[in-house]
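TASK: fixed-backbone design
INPUT:
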């Protein structure tokens, strides 16, 4: 299970399309006043020795989910601090969407203040499972209360880039993500040493270029 480095270390990434979020410690987050909302989400992952097409290393399998609004995010949600601790609130939401997992404070990874009109501190938890345990979570999620409603299905993040430099992770980053989910994914991959920072930057650059070209095709020519 990965551990979080000191707050403020390495929170800024130079890659395109990643919001600059202020990182704070768990203690600082707990001291925030009642005007702040707390969201708690979980990144579940496992080492994966498999190879795509027998030649592309999978390296890790990371779970995210397709939400009811068509956006990608991590399992979890908002926690009402008047009634729940962060972990109890997170586990309550996970029970509705996954059905078989409980996280603890030992799984805590980071907290970030989000930008925008709403004052939200986004907490991320991360737990490394075995590949068999991860698969069991996927099976359990299909039978959870929220499956087909608020959660449309779990997806595995492709942590590889194909020869065309777009297939795999860059294409995945071209999707739409809810709030801080994209940033949290990149941040976790970096601090848990799951992907070198230069590879993250390359994937982000390729995804940004793909989105730019797609937008140019939609806009009328100025000539």
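OUTPUT:
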């Amino acid at each position: 299970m990965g551990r979080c480095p000191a707050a403020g270390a390495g929170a800024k990434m130079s890659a395109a399309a990643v919001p600059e979020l202020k990182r704070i410690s768990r203690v600082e987050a707990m001291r925030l006043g009642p005007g702040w909302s707390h969201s708690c989400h979980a990144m579940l992952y496992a080492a994966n020795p498999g190879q795509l097409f027998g030649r592309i290393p999978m390296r890790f399998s990371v779970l995210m989910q397709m939400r009811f609004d068509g956006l990608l995010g991590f399992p979890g949600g908002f926690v009402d601090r008047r009634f729940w601790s962060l972990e109890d609130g997170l586990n309550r939401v996970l029970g509705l969407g996954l059905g078989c997992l409980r996280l603890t404070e030992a799984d805590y990874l980071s907290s970030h203040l989000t930008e925008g009109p709403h004052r939200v501190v986004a907490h991320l938890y991360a737990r490394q499972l075995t590949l068999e345990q991860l698969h069991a979570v996927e099976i359990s999620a299909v039978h959870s209360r929220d499956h087909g409603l608020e959660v449309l299905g779990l997806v595995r993040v492709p942590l590889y880039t194909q020869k065309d430099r777009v297939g795999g992770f860059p294409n995945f980053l071209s999707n739409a993500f809810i709030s801080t989910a994209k940033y949290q994914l990149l941040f976790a991959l970096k601090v848990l040493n799951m992907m070198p920072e230069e590879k993250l930057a390359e994937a982000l650059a390729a995804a940004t270029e793909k989105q730019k070209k797609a937008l140019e095709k939609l806009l009328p020519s100025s000539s």
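COMMENT: The first strand starts at residue 22 and ends at 24.
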